[in-house]
């Protein structure tokens, strides 16, 4: 006996059915201790270093470039200014003997050094003390060979205080002067480097000043002084404004010339 089938409407419900729970906000939950990774992994050359995490990006962003300066009294802070080779130093020494070029500042702009300042100043101190005594001995033999001649140790003290003081204090003074006049931004290291190499010509001149001829000595020291003064004055043009250049360059020129006269009068008279 057939029984009629009843249609199940859209509104009818099955007995025992449970309606699905639908939430409006679907939030991503990051379980505690989970570490999200970004695919693909970082490839360095031909080797896979592993997957990059979100924390790695944050750490790389927060890293700042480190500076080589570790304090005024730290030796490692000045090691970068002695990182020069022989060819570079020789090139700068030859440039100091060509004072009219005025391109020395461009050669030291990328890598100024203090090696020239220390080495040239120390060599000049010993040359002035030793060769000054030698010149005094030769002049003594020419004038009066009967008396006894004695080595003057005071030459070492005067030479050291004069050269080291001049090479350190004068560039420092001009550094503050250029900053006060509103010149271009320049580091003190570049000024020390410039004045240090300007003294190299006096080392060469000191060997010739031993010749016991007074007129020749004056000619030699004036030529060396003019070369050194011109070298400093022309290279200062890159750091000084045009209106202030005559004052700064002129005073630097006279100081270099005064140093040369002092060397002649005190050590080779």
From TrEMBL:
It is a multi-pass membrane protein. This is Protein YIP. One of its GO terms (biological process) is vesicle-mediated transport. The chain crosses the membrane at residues 114-138, 158-177, 189-209, 215-236, 248-268. The keyword Transmembrane helix applies. Belongs to the YIP1 family. Residues 99-257 form the Yip1 domain. It is found in: Golgi apparatus membrane; Membrane. It comes from Genlisea aurea. GO terms for cellular component: Golgi membrane. One of its GO terms (molecular function) is small GTPase binding. The keyword Membrane applies. Keywords: Membrane, Transmembrane, Transmembrane helix.
